[in-house]
Specification:
The chain is mainly α and 135 residues long. The protein has one domain: 3-Layer(aba) Sandwich (Rossmann fold). The protein contains six helices and two strands, in the order αααααββα. Strands 1-2 form a two-stranded parallel sheet. The longest helix is centred in the middle third of the chain and has 14 residues. The radius of gyration is 15 Å and the shape is globular.
Length: 135
């Protein structure tokens, strides 16, 4: 959302990451929850059409989008017990990562720092991303 939304300090780093994905230098995936978050953020606003375009670009770039399955949702109660202060959205992201063997997430959300199962890489953390980028 930072790459396509309103002006933001994370816009440039997020655009760089998307360029790495688009050029095949960074393997990355996204889930249906991320696409839903884009729609939710822009829904019922004057920028709804922009949100639909951003969601479509996300779907196209990260095809196939990882689904939210019964198995993923079934992991959430245990994650909620382990991390009671985290949002359902964060927990669905973590459950998706666990289901697909994903060890790192790129996110500005520092709440992910308290989750043991995945490592957060901040969008502006070039050193953290560098080990995942093909030269």
């Amino acid at each position: 959302m930072y790459a396509g939304g309103a002006s933001h300090p994370l816009r440039a780093p997020c655009l760089e990451i998307l360029d790495l994905v688009a050029t095949g230098r960074l393997d990355a995936v996204t889930s249906a929850e991320v696409v839903q978050e884009i729609f939710h953020r822009f829904a019922r606003s004057p920028r709804a059409a922009e949100g639909a375009e951003l969601a479509q670009a996300t779907i196209d770039l990260f095809s196939p989008v990882l689904p939210i399955t019964h198995g993923i949702v079934a992991r959430m109660p245990e994650l909620a017990r382990r991390y009671p202060t985290h949002s359902a959205r964060d927990l669905i992201h973590v459950a998706t990562c666990l289901a697909h063997g994903i060890e790192a997430v790129v996110s500005p959300d520092t709440d992910f720092d308290r989750i043991r199962e995945v490592r957060r890489i901040a969008p502006e953390d070039h050193a953290g991303l560098s080990s995942h980028v093909r030269r």
